[in-house]
Structure formats: structure tokens, C-alpha cells
Amino acid sequence: MNILIGICLVVITVSLIILVLAVTRTVKQAETFIAETKRTVNELRTEVLQMSSEAREVVQNTNAVTVDARRKLKDLDGLFHTVSDIGEAAHALTTAAKHAAAGVLEKTTAKTEQATRAGISNAARMGHESAGAGNSGAQIRKTAAAIAEMVASSVKIWSRMKAN
To answer: Would you say 141 and 123 are in contact if contact means Cβ atoms under 8 Å apart?
Structure first.
């Protein structure tokens, strides 16, 4: 029995030695892993600090650009108001010119129509008076009618252009 206990003690001792060697090996691996983790965490801290300082710099530059843009836009406000005033003045001038042109057109049209009517009446009288003269009265009437038609067409074209 003593031999059996001795053999058991040897087996237990060998097992404990193997266990201690395995635990030592695992502890060394854990130690290496922990050291690598510490190094990675330190690198991350350094990078985070660099990134945060760069982010602060970007924010400061953005603020400076925003302030500069606001100042420049404020300086341009006067220019935009002036351009707006010029546009309104040009619009008023154009409107006045359109109204004046329309008035002149109406007067010209009325006078042309009166002249055409008078010319047709005179031509008709002359045609009756000069019946012996042949086709000259008919030709004058045709010419007056053509002129009246041309004036009417011109007025229609002008009205369409004015509407557009």
C-alpha cells in the first residue's frame, strides 16, 4: 500500500507540475495580451487627442469663415438694395415708355384711319368726277384700300407684340 500511495503522490506531483507550467504559460500570454492592450489604449488616447485638437481647429476655422461671410454679406446688402432700386426704376421707365408708345400708336392709328377714309372719299369723288379718265379712280381706291389694310395689319401686329 505504501507503494500505491507513493505512486499516487508521484502522479499528483507530476500533474501539479504540468498544471503549474500550463498556468505559468497562460499567465505569460495574459501578461503579453495586457501589455499589448495598454499600448493600444495609449495609442488610441494619443490619436483621440490629436483628432480632438484638429476638430477644435476646424471648428475655429469654420467660425472664422462664417463671421467673414456674414460681414461680407452685410457689406453687400447696400449693393443689393441699389440694384433693386435700379431695377424698379428701369421697370417704371419701361412701363412709362410702353404707355407713351401705346398713346402715340393710338393717335397715329386714328389719324391714319381718318386720312385713309378721307383719301378714299376724295378718291371716290375724283373717280366720279373723272369718269372719263378711265381706271385712275379705281386704281386710287385700290391703293387707298391697300394702305388701309396695311395700317390695320400693322396695328394688329403691334398689339400682339405689346401683349407678349
So the answer is: yes
The grid coordinates of residue 76 equal: 453687400
- Residue 159: its pLDDT value, please? 73
Q: Residue 108, Cβ neighbours under 10 Å: how many?
A: 14
Distance CA 46, CA 39 (A): 11
CA within 13 Å, CB half, 154: 13
Answer whether 97's CB lies under 8 Å from 114's CB. Answer: no
The three-state secondary structure class of 32 is: helix
Is the pLDDT at 132 greater than 50? The verdict is no
**Cα dihedral angle (132, 134, 136, 141), rounded to 10 degrees?**
90
For residues 48 and 45, what is the distance between their CA atoms, to the nearest angstrom? 5
Q: What percent of the chain is modeled with pLDDT above 70?
A: 76
Identity of the amino acid at 137: G
How far is the C-alpha of 27 from the C-alpha of 45, rounded, in Å?
A: 26
- What are 71-103's pLDDT values in tens digits? 988 888 877 877 787 777 777 777 776 777 677
Only one residue has cell 400682339, namely 160
